[in-house]
Amino acid sequence: MARLFEYQSKELLNQAGIKIPRGRVACSPEEAAEIARELGSEVVLKVQAWVTSRASLGGIRFASNPNETASLAAQLFGLNIKNFKVEKILVEEKLAIAQELFAGLVIDDALKAPVLIFSSVGGRGIEEIASRHPEKIVRQIIDLRRGLTEAEALDVARRAGFSGEIQNKIAHFLVRLFEVARKYEARSLEVNPLVITTENDLIAADAHLVIDDYAVFRHPELGIEVAREFDRPPTELEKIAYKVEERDYRGTFYFFQMIEEIPEGELVVGFHGAGGGGSMMSMDALLRQGFKLANYCDTSGNPPASKVYRAAKIILSQPGLCGYFASGSGVASQEQYHSARGLVKAFLEEKLEIPAVIRLGGNFEELAIEILSTYLKEIPAPVEGYGRAQSPDFCATRLKQLIKNRTLIRHEVRPIKDPFIPPGAYVFATMTGSVIIDDRRCAECATRPCLEACSPRILGLVENKIRLIISEEEAQKGKCTECLACEIACRFHGQQGLFLWLPIPGLKEYRQKIIGIYNSLTNK
Prior knowledge:
Blueprint lengths: L1 E2 L2 H10 L7 E4 L2 H11 L3 E5 L12 E4 L2 H11 L3 E2 L2 E2 L3 E5 L3 E12 L4 E7 L6 H7 L4 E5 L8 H10 L4 H20 L2 E12 L4 E3 L3 E4 L24 H12 L4 E6 L10 E5 L3 H13 L3 E2 L1 E6 L4 H11 L7 E5 L4 E4 H15 L5 E4 L2 E2 L1 H11 L7 E4 L5 H13 L21 E4 L4 E4 L1 H4 L6 H5 L5 E4 L2 E4 L3 H8 L5 H9 L4 E4 L5 H16 L2
Helix pairs in contact: 2-3, 5-6, 7-9, 8-12, 9-10, 10-11
């Protein structure tokens, strides 16, 4: 699920005709003071962070004039609140509050319907208030086909103890609140507090909207970069990883960074799982051996080799790793040789120097282990492959031993270079990359191992040249499965005349930045 900041949620409410406090978001103390000057009243400064209880954490302050606003804003910018660095502050007019209410919409999975929750009490400590005064909570199940009717909204306000003009205002608000939630396909939408002012206005003083991650692609206007339920803004590497998942529906790829800067002396590994339950067991096994995890990564659901390759490249964009550990379910239904080939391509390109232990339990695990042992002999690092018979604990122990058996090496991030495309090369597009064939090298190849390795049988000989025997459009739509078998066969059994270019948007620039930072710190 994807969260919106308070100021973003309020803007959507405002567009739907729901009153919000006057004000706007600031990105500097000077801008905060300017907003206070424009408002010409006492103001409230609210850090924009995906955390609860901001007031108790010092994230909500009040100021009586622009100078005080600037001073308080300077204290708030850069503040770390539960690992959330404050970069934006909402500056709004201070409301004259007569009563605080609560209103929320949530999808009830058991009922398979949205549920409206409304209370005549709201504000800080709403959970405790609800437990002490359950009689003040009104719930209304909403029929998705007709939505929340005006009559139902009026009844909700009546059951909460309201009548007259304010009852009508609450009903009007609730109907529009539901319209916002439905329009943006929200999993939840909470307004706490909903304020009745001393002038009897009804104003949404706070708002938090959470969008269903499967609906994010239908709402580009919201500018959501990563459809994940983070408790902090996504890191740059997480954004790059999400773009891989977003553009390729085949299988799952999830990447979450747990340590951005690896402390000196810590044994931190890159983690590559496959399947939630098996990955959890594997991570526990690493922790028992004294390792820390730089990231959590999952490639499951039968992803193509190209997706596993990209996952490995992203994991290896983290400097300072002492090892690479891949282990997931021991009974995965996916063909493990795809994962093995993806790892082989990535490790070869990286010239991997840190030890790696790869546990690929599941279909064709013997072939997957053979691929690893056969084609990774030329890299500096030891790589060991195991199947379901070896437990995650055994594999984590092996990684610890491999690290101990040699001088501790820290992973250095390497630059990504654009491929050299030989003059006159034959190139065709795949779903997420390109196959590049050098006819001059292929002419020297007597065995043509790429043809035998191509299980989809989309390559063949045309006038004695390796060519697609399907249309380029079919290849781009997925008939070329990007299994990487042809490239590995050509590299080790042919003339190295065929390879796949699988770009990862943004990763080249990210690595350049990381390398520049590393060089400046080490005076290289």
